Amino acid sequence: MFRKLMQCSVFALLGVVGVLATYGWAISANKAASISDVMKASFGKGGFKAKITEASKNKNYDEVAKLGRDWVACVENLLKNKPPRGDEKEFHARAEKFLNLTREIVAAAEKGDGKAIAASLKGIGGLCGDCHKNHK
Ligand code: HEC
Hints:
By secondary structure, the chain is mostly helical. The protein has a single domain (2-135), classed as Four Helix Bundle (Hemerythrin (Met), subunit A) (Up-down Bundle). It contains nine helices and no strands. It has helices at residues 2-7, 10-14, 16-26, 35-43, 48-57, 61-75, 88-110, 114-125, 128-135. Bound molecules: heme C. Heme C binds next to helix 4, helix 7, helix 8 and helix 9.
């Protein structure tokens, strides 16, 4: 339960500042994290994408794999959400693409393949516009 709570939590990544950022979600911890929480934990300052980019640059692939596993669990929350706009099934299909790329990061990290990690991160960077245009 505690681990589940931490997976999507900016708190896990940021420390004290994050406590405030995730407080709203933490008090409703048995609900899925909201899309907004997933976005902030993924792409915010000190979020998964930034941390993984940094760890990969330092060739710290154990850390990338660890962060990657938490990112997968975090992104899975998207599948439990309805988008504010657009078709729910289409949103879930777009979320699956994102989820698969986070899974690829874990697989690449386990092989110590920095190039594949970078390629997956780039792939994720290419998903924002399409999903936001249709669902944000
Ligand atoms: C699968 C769909 C999807 C993908 C992929 C996606 N987003 Fe989002 N994002 C959303 C939706 C939907 C919202 C609006 C959430 C809301 O308002 O409830 C959002 C909101 C956001 C927010 C605002 C969060 C907040 O509430 O403060 C940021 C920042 C953001 N996205 C960044 C990104 C970046 C950067 C990428 C790509 C690297 C990305 N998103 C990829 C669906 C997506």
